[in-house]
């Protein structure tokens, strides 16, 4: 009779390792991105908004302008560095407001009865079916374009997703026995939500924030590409792509760098979000909304 | 076409995912038309044994050893070759009939598919046979039942549909994995009676997997007791249950509630064996049962006992001699 | 099913009303005196009043809102202040670009994502599955307009196979129209596919571990048959939901891609009219798009009811 020697090591599925790899890469890319944005406040290779006509359209690799210059002789690296600020400001700004509004509405839907739930959930469904890009165009038309408008537009599109995710996370916490126990102690609803529910859904909130930070950067780039996002002297990677296409043509290397920057940063944040999700809450399945 | 003498011959079956083994060398034989019970606590490897026989192990798990059935070794067969046997020469009834039936197809269509897959009859004939089967399963209003979706019928009815699917092509062997655990106690007996009759009528062999000893006593002629991936005792049901030789079997029998208790609370949890089933990745050396065994000695801690025979056998260094009175 | 359909219909109507109110308030509530904006700084007060009166802009907002909705319901989408063209005519022309683009993009996305997502789910834990997961992760990070730029550099500038932008009308040159659409559709479809692959992979993974897939194998299906005939059929339910949710995303992508390839679609029209302060045109066009998206979601809900007997027979 054949036997298999029992191994003393616990089962360690390979999946776990892969996800940690995504966390590591995500953290590295995200930290790199944040550091560049911080450095941009203290040091820039040159002023990204002042034209230097004699230096126009220098090719990548030129001394002093490693990635070259644009049609007005402005350094590409300097523009990319300042652009990272816009990505953080708008992406994180939009995601933050959505997080706050989504938490309030999501918790209210989960904890304050059927009618509140039905109203908030259906409201979120309606908002989800409104195409954000189109509404942003309208918003830009009525309020004027700029970083603030873009942040407001982003938070408006993102809030319903936050509402949904936080509602369902809160609902599952509210079903736990310790909540019933807290209720029996006579704890009020707000107390229970603040002290018991919020800490337990913090992981979900962090993951959601990270993923929508990334989505915000993508959407901002799109809006600025369309010319209804941020405007100079602020700089956006989407705006740089638009300028490259309009002024020099798409085959210019100027149409490469901002795109690469977006891909790296968004990829980093998405990997970070996915990695965090598996670390913070392994039971949490990938949600579809 | 002469039927082989044995419906199933399992030799040294090992089921492993490369890191741990859920089944660690299991051998048994079920003669044609024979009925064997496989008992053990959850985690003892009995369900993995069944899935290995069917070639339905979860992703990442593999089987070694040999499983002779209908003249072939199932372990070496390709998925395609096995698929033409599954549902035809061997079949399986699963535990939870709600999750085990396809929620988006009518139950009649699901049965008819099996018939058409294995007999090649046309749709009309398959539908006629399906209706016959559903009638045999004593389901009310069969014409309506076949047109129902799984969620529209009761748990007992679903399990009868599951049994009808498994028996549709008169398999030589039926594996039933806890077929009544998910059902209401009142329905359990009816479903078991039906399964019993249907198996008898087809002259199929039965491998009944359960932790419910009275069911084994009522339906099977032999029994194998599994613990931590190995058979620790086997033999004819009457002998094993009357004079258990392994201390685990003994503990199982003593902790078994009587029929009256079952009717009261429906559970048959082990209460008199101290300790817990060891996890697969941390099995004790020697006899895996020794930490929980009243008769354990130094030898039990170091050396693994083998089954001491082929028909009536136990794998124990200190087999119990006296009979217990608590035979179900 | 009847109750289910009625509930979804009620939601559809409610959603359209809420959305119309939001659009109206957004454009008109915040917009100030429309007539003054349209006519510009040098306009006289008389001219402004005259224009406002002609278009009923001097009436109270609630009245204008009801009027707008009633007109829309009767098929009158209003007209441009400057050119007097009816919005319906303006839109119809643009739809012959935008609709084929959006639909083909979605279709291409699905055609790529369903088999690839299924394959990735079957090979989870293997190198090929991990590679596909990584590729779709990267694809999700690529902005759709940058994908458009890269593709047109490759196929338009370097290889010269396809136009990098511009449009020839269907009636003038159908082949040219198709050629103009190839790269836009490819960009949109690839990015949609990257997003969809992730969802489809997890939907299929979920379904693959269901007991009924094992049962299907236990009664005679091969692993592949069970996956395709039972698994994919059940995975259709979450996939349909995802497609519904992605419609808004698709419209956004279409808007941007039209700009990348200078296609005369709806988005260019909206942008031009936003710049020209043609509020009526913008308001009605945006509303049309939103109604379309909400309608698609309504259809998706109905489809869901048809696909899932548990919903179909619930009432």
Output the radius of gyration of chain A: 23 Å
CATH level 1 name of the largest domain in chain B: Alpha Beta
Element order of chain A: H for helix, E for strand:
HHHHHHHHH
Number of strands of chain B: 11
The strands making up the biggest β-sheet of chain B line up spatially as: 6-7-8-3-9-10-11
Shape of chain B: globular
Can you put this structure into words, describing what you see?
The complex is a heterotrimer of chains A (289), B (328) and C (315). With 289 residues, chain A is mainly α. Chain A is 70% helix and 0% strand. Chain A is built from 9 helices and no strands. In chain A, helix 2 runs parallel beside helix 5 (147-174). The model of chain A is unreliable at 1-18 and 284-289 (pLDDT under 50). Chain B folds into 2 domains: 6-220, P-loop containing nucleotide triphosphate hydrolases (Rossmann fold, 3-Layer(aba) Sandwich); 245-326, no CATH class. In chain B, helix 4 crosses helix 5, helix 4 (107-119) packs parallel to helix 7 and helix 7 runs parallel beside helix 8 (185-202). Chain B has 13 helices and 11 strands. Chain C starts with a helix and ends with a helix. Classes of the chains: A mainly alpha (289), B alpha/beta (328), C mainly alpha (315). Chain B binds chain C through residues 54, 56, 59-60, 79-80, 83-84, 86-88, 91-92, 94, 96, 99-104, 113-114, 117-118, 149, 151-152, 162, 165-166, 168, and chain C through 125, 210-212, 214-223, 225, 230, 233-234, 237, 307-310, 313.
Give structural attributes.
heterotrimer; A: 289 residues; mainly alpha; MetI-like fold; 0% strand; disordered N terminus; disordered C terminus; B: 328 residues; alpha/beta; Rossmann fold; 2 domains; 7-stranded mixed sheet; 4-stranded antiparallel sheet; 13 helices; 11 strands; 35% helix; 20% strand
């Amino acid at each position: 009779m054949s036997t298999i020697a029992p191994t003393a090591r616990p089962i360690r599925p390979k999946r776990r390792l892969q996800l940690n790899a995504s966390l590591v890469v995500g953290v590295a890319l995200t930290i790199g991105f944040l550091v560049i944005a911080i450095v941009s406040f203290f040091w820039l290779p040159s002023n990204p908004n002042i034209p230097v006509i004699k230096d126009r359209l220098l090719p990548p690799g030129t001394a002093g302008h490693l990635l070259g210059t644009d049609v007005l002789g402005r350094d590409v690296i300097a523009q990319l560095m300042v652009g990272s600020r816009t990505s953080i400001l708008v992406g994180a700004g939009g995601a933050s407001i959505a997080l706050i509004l989504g938490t309030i509405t999501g918790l209210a839907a989960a904890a304050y009865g059927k009618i509140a739930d039905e109203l908030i959930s259906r409201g979120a469904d309606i908002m989800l079916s409104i195409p954000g890009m189109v509404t942003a165009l309208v918003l830009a038309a009525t309020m004027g374009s700029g970083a603030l408008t873009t942040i407001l537009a982003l938070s408006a599109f993102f809030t319903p997703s936050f509402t949904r995710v936080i509602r369902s996370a809160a609902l599952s916490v509210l079903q736990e026995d310790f909540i019933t126990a807290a209720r029996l102690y006579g704890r009020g609803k707000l107390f229970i939500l603040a002290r018991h529910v919020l800490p337990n859904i913090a992981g979900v909130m962090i993951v959601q924030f990270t993923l929508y930070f990334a989505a915000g950067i993508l959407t901002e780039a799109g809006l600025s590409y369309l010319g209804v996002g941020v405007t100079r002297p602020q700089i956006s990677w989407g705006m740089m792509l638009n300028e490259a296409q309009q002024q020099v043509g798409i085959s210019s290397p100027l149409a490469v760098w901002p795109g690469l920057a977006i891909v790296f940063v968004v990829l980093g944040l998405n990997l970070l979000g996915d990695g965090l999700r598996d670390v913070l809450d392994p039971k949490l399945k990938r949600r579809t909304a | 076409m002469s039927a082989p003498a044995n419906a199933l011959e399992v030799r040294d079956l090992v089921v492993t995912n490369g890191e741990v083994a859920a089944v660690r060398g299991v051998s048994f034989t079920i003669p044609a038309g024979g009925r064997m019970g496989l008992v053990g606590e959850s985690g003892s490897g009995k369900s993995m044994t069944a899935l290995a026989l069917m070639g339905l192990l979860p992703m990442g798990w593999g089987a070694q050893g040999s499983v002779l059935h209908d003249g072939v070794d199932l372990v070496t067969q390709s998925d395609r070759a096995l698929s033409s046997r599954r549902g035809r020469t061997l079949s399986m009834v699963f535990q939870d009939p709600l999750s085990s039936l396809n929620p988006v197809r009518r139950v009649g269509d699901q049965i008819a598919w099996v018939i058409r897959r294995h007999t090649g009859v046309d749709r009309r004939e398959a539908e006629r046979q399906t209706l016959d089967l559903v009638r045999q399963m004593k389901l009310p209003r069969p014409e309506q039942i076949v047109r129902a979706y799984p969620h529209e019928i009761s748990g007992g009815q679903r399990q009868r549909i599951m049994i009808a699917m498994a028996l549709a092509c008169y398999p030589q062997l039926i594996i039933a994995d806890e077929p009544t655990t998910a059902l209401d106690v009142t329905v359990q007996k009816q479903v078991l009676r039906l399964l019993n009759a249907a198996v008898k009528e087809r002259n199929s062999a039965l491998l009944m997997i359960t932790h419910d000893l009275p069911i084994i006593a009522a339906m099977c002629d032999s029994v194998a007791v599994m613990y931590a991936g190995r058979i620790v005792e086997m033999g004819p049901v009457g002998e094993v249950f009357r004079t258990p030789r392994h201390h685990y079997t003994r503990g199982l029998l003593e902790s078994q509630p009587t029929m009256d208790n079952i009717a009261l609370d429906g559970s048959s949890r082990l209460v008199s064996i101290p300790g817990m089933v060891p996890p697969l990745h941390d099995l004790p050396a020697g006899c895996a049962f020794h930490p929980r065994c009243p008769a354990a000695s130094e030898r039990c801690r170091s050396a693994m006992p083998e089954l001491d025979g082929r028909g009536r056998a136990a794998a124990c260094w200190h087999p119990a001699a006296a009979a217990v009175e608590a035979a179900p | 099913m009847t109750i289910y359909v009625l509930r979804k219909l009620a939601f559809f109507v409610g959603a359209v009303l809420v959305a119309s109110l939001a659009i109206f308030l957004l454009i008109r509530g915040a917009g100030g005196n429309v007539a003054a904006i349209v006519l510009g700084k040098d306009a006289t007060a008389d001219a402004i009043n005259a224009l406002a009166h002609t278009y009923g802009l001097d009436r109270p907002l609630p009245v204008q809102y009801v009027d707008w909705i009633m007109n829309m319901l009767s098929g009158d989408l209003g007209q441009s202040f400057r050119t007097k063209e009816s919005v319906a005519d303006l839109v119809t022309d643009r739809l012959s670009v935008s609709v084929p683009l959006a639909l083909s993009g979605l279709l291409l996305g699905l055609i790529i994502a369903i088999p690839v997502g299924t394959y990735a789910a079957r090979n989870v834990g293997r190198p090929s599955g991990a590679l596909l997961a990584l590729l779709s992760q990267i694809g999700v990070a690529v902005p759709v307009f940058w994908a458009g730029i890269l593709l047109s550099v490759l196929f338009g500038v370097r290889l010269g196979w396809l136009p990098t932008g511009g449009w020839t009308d269907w009636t003038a040159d159908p082949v040219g129209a198709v050629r103009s659409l190839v790269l836009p559709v490819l960009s949109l479809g690839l990015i949609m596919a990257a997003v969809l692959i992730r969802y489809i992979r997890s939907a299929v993974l979920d379904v693959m571990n269901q007991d009924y897939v094992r049962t299907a194998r236990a009664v005679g299906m091969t692993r592949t048959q069970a996956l395709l005939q039972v698994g994919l059929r059940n995975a259709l339910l979450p996939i349909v939901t995802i497609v519904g949710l992605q419609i808004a995303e698709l419209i956004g992508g279409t808007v941007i891609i039209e700009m990348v390839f200078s296609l005369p679609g709806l988005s260019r029209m909206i942008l031009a009219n936003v710049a020209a302060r043609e509020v009526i045109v913008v308001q009605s066009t945006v509303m049309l798009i939103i109604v379309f998206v909400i309608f698609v979601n309504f259809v998706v809900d109905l489809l869901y009811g048809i696909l899932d007997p548990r919903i179909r027979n619930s009432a």
